[in-house]
């Protein structure tokens, strides 16, 4: 067993010969919501990629569920990642993208119809994602991440494109996820989202 969902020690990452993260330490317990905050280029996305097993450490240790994260099936059954906009399937509607997610994960956290309601996509359910607005597409990405079961949610700027009202709604949805025992780590520039989370900095200096 493991004491923390995430434990990072002395994490250093160099990209293109430049240090991006330097000796970072971070411990996250189950049920916590952590906001990684800092200016552009401070290494927030790099930290998330390390936690997702997508970026190797140059030095130091990253453990997720007690083990170094690996980009494989068993890991991704427990971890949902919201990063850059995903590739949308041509010919499939918004609803069908969610149905696809539900087909792969038979025990979803909510039904497709509920997800369309929660993420305010009912009126656009039959539209192709590329015909949605930027914010609607972000809500679809979030719906897909929160529809499927997971124990750790890694979100890179989940507020991207969302209006103020939905940002508040998103904070409520993340609280509900954590109340179920899930853990959230998000990189964010949104002060409202960060204020409702434990704020950490990729430079190691906590706000
Ligand atoms: N593939 C790469 N090769 C070299 N340098 C990179 C690479 N990817 C990112 N960087 C650099 O690493 C630093 C950290 O980038 P990162 O994307 O983690 O920052 P961030 O805090 O998420 O920024 P933002 O707030 O703009 O999203 C930046 O200076 C960036 O230019």
TrEMBL record:
One of its GO terms (biological process) is cytochrome complex assembly. The keyword Protease does not apply. InterPro entries: AAA+_ATPase (IPR003593), ABC_transporter-like_ATP-bd (IPR003439), ABC_transptr_haem_export_CcmA (IPR005895), P-loop_NTPase (IPR027417). It holds the Pfam family ABC_tran. Gene3D superfamilies: P-loop containing nucleotide triphosphate hydrolases. Keywords: ATP-binding, Cytochrome c-type biogenesis, Nucleotide-binding, Transport. Belongs to the ABC transporter superfamily. SMART domains: AAA (SM00382). Residues 6-207 form the ABC transporter domain. GO terms for molecular function: ATP binding; ATP hydrolysis activity; transmembrane transporter activity. This is Heme ABC exporter ATP-binding protein CcmA. The keyword Lipoprotein does not apply.
């Amino acid at each position: 067993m493991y004491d923390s969902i995430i434990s990072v020690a002395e994490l250093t990452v160099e990209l293109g010969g430049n240090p991006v993260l330097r000796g970072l330490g971070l411990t996250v317990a189950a049920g916590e919501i952590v906001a990684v905050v800092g200016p552009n280029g401070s290494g927030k996305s790099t930290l998330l990629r390390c936690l997702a097993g997508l970026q190797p450490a140059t030095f130091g240790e990253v453990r997720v569920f007690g083990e170094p994260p690996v980009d494989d099936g068993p890991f991704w059954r427990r971890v949902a990642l919201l990063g850059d906009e995903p590739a949308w399937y041509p010919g499939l509607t918004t609803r069908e993208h969610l149905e696809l997610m539900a087909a792969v994960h038979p025990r979803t956290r909510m039904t497709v119809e509920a997800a369309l309601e929660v993420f305010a996509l009912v009126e656009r359910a039959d539209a192709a994602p590329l015909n949605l607005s930027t914010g609607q597409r972000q809500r679809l990405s979030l719906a897909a991440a929160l529809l499927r079961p997971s124990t750790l949610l890694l979100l890179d700027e989940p507020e991207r494109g969302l209006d103020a009202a939905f940002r508040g709604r998103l904070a409520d949805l993340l609280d509900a996820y954590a109340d179920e025992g899930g853990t959230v780590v998000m990189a964010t520039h949104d002060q409202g989202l960060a204020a409702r989370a434990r704020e950490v900095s990729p430079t190691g200096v906590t706000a």
